[in-house]
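Case study 2.
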Amino acid sequence: MHIMLTGHRGFIGTELLKRLTKNHSVVGFDLVDGQDLLTVPLKERFDLIIHLAGVAGLRDSFEDPKSYWYNNVEVMKRLLSIYGNNTRILYASSSSAAEPELNPYAASKFLMEIAAANYTNTLGMRFHTVYSANPRKGMFMQKLINNELEYTTNHYRDFIHLEDLCDAIELLIQSDFTDIIDIGTGNPVLVSELAPTYPVKAATYGERQETRANTDKMESLGFRPKYDIQKFIKILS
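Prediction:
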């Protein structure tokens, strides 16, 4: 297939690009390369679009909600207006979209889903908390690995390893699922138990208390995560 991959230089996109180029022709778009998806010419036709680009991080979204609107919602609307009627689009949503009222980031992802619902061949992939040995900067795992963690929380999070996430996306490329799908393990863990020597911050504004993926659809495709977050941290330590 001829695939458009946005955000191909990001945390998830970098790993996915390595996989896709083994069997497909891939054209990447990333702001790092000066390709602003709000303005870059989009005339080439594709068999599939995988849209990972966007602004992440719920805390930062309170400081600059306008950036989340333009880079998440408006970019999604532009891609849909150009490709939505004739190209299958898999796009990165978030488990946060289940409670869009909590923060501007969650709201932006929810609005992406609302926009995509007007097109018949789109699939919003609600990623849960993605980690790896080389995690995205500012995330819990990155701070833990680099001894930068200041506190933990009493939230339950469904952590999914980057390799498992990419396995899931590869399965979804071959599927005919539309609408919304969770990508996670279905087994949330208490964050404070992953780093028990750190103090626990009781109240963190704008966050969900628990995230838990509904894995029924992914399991129907044969998806089984290989990694367990608790075993992963034990190996690291």
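The chain has nine helices and twelve strands.
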